[in-house]
């Protein structure tokens, strides 16, 4: 089953991003321009790896800028929770 | 091999790492020692104040005996591209280790190397090292990254080391003024004990204590015992020339404490330091006597450090008191949590009080900058 933006938003809260930041987050806009910082971003990548049994190379992960980018990659890679 | 010989060998073998390789975090192996030295040389030059990082056999020995637990990030070709350390440093309690020295090679700054080191430490080291009861970190306050990483794994704020580091230590980071550090502590194995609240900083101590996840036998109003004439002050002095800081660990408070403290303050100023710190034993019924002597000498409140003394001296905990030796500009102070912001407020307010009351030199907080308070998300 394809991962949704809502599921990914819930994961952002799991890594400690404030709910008020997550609530207004635009899935098509860069995460680092919407209140995530240099600690949140790798923490989110690490949780994506763990949750969907994927391996994200650092250089590749930095190209995943939006929640939609993450969802597309997870769905394409066949990541399963 | 001496430090000078080791640094010469490192200089002779300096090379740029191949960027873009796959990286992996691991515990230290003896073969990593030259790579760790290369990193320290790249980032600190020849001035890092201890020898172990530069001298391979010292680093290997320290990791073998458990004085240092080094973590490394290795690239696919075996190069060391990053490192972090859990190590014995200033606390007299040899079971309280410092967590820090997170360094990443310049070719790998655009990776998650620092984050991966921290996650590895959290998952495999924190709370799992047999010779470690507590960890402390000095999280710089000109950005929030370190504070945030520590807070996410059970470190709590307990003090502010105002203007601890010179701006030169953070060249290239756009810092102006001395950098303050938030003291954050994580306790895995507590050692309960007496806790005498010093009258002169009782309000600050009582404000911090409720946030401690620790149990203490708190003794209010009993801390002002005057030491007997034959009781001698036991004070160990450490100098950090590169930082312009003198740190005094007071294991025992004696009758001549005030004179000894005045002498250290005077000598530290003569040596050209900017800052002097005193760690007083909160397990001593004379801690209030010592605290009042330091207050009269123009010192201000810094915080309370759990397990700083442990079983050494009249521990287990310490009161941090500090004093500038000349007026210094301070870098912006940012805090990631409300608890951290409260500690910052207490320290800066008391610094200003010492300036007003005793004419003590102060750190000058940047004008028109929000210096205190949690940064908005």
- CATH class of the largest domain in chain B, named Alpha Beta
* Tally of alpha and pi helices of chain B: 9
Strand order of the largest sheet of chain B: 1-2-3-4-5-7-6
The proportion of residues in beta strands of chain B is 25-35%
String of helices and strands of chain B: HEHHEEEHEHEEEHEEEHEHEEEHE
| Alpha-beta classification of chain B | alpha/beta
* Average pLDDT score of chain B: 93
Rounded to the nearest angstrom, the radius of gyration of chain B is 21 Å
Percentage of residues in strands of chain A: under 5%
Q: Mean pLDDT score of chain A, rounded?
A: 89
The major β-sheet of chain B equals: 7 strands, mixed
Task: Tell me what the structure shows.
The complex is a heterodimer of chains A (81) and B (377). Chain A is mainly alpha-helical and 81 residues long. Chain A has a single domain (5-77), classed as Non-ribosomal Peptide Synthetase Peptidyl Carrier Protein, Chain A (Orthogonal Bundle), CATH 1.10.1200.10. Chain A has five helices and no strands. Chain A has helices at residues 5-14, 19-23, 40-52, 58-61, 67-77. The model of chain A has no long low-confidence stretch (mean pLDDT 89). Chain B folds into two domains: 1-100, no CATH class; 194-364, Gcn5-related N-acetyltransferase (GNAT) (Aminopeptidase). Chain B starts with a helix and ends in a 13-residue tail after the last strand. The chains are: A mainly alpha (81), B alpha/beta (377). At the A-B interface, helix 3 and helix 4 of A face helix 4 and helix 5 of B.
TL;DR of this structure?
The complex is a heterodimer of chains A (81) and B (377). With 81 residues, chain A is an all-alpha fold.
Task: Furnish the topology, listing elements before pairings.
The complex is a heterodimer of chains A (81) and B (377).
Chain A (H helix, E strand, L loop, with lengths): L4 H10 L4 H5 L16 H13 L5 H4 L5 H11 L4
Chain B lengths: L2 H10 L10 E5 L5 H12 L11 H10 L2 E8 L4 E9 L7 E9 L8 H12 L9 E7 L4 H7 L4 E10 L13 E9 L6 E3 L5 H7 L8 E3 L14 E7 L4 E8 L4 H14 L4 E7 L5 H10 L3 E6 L12 E7 L3 E2 L8 H21 L4 E2 L13
Parallel strand pairs in B: 4-5, 8-9, 11-12, 15-16
Antiparallel strand pairs in B: 1-2, 2-3, 3-4, 5-7, 6-7, 10-11, 12-14, 13-14
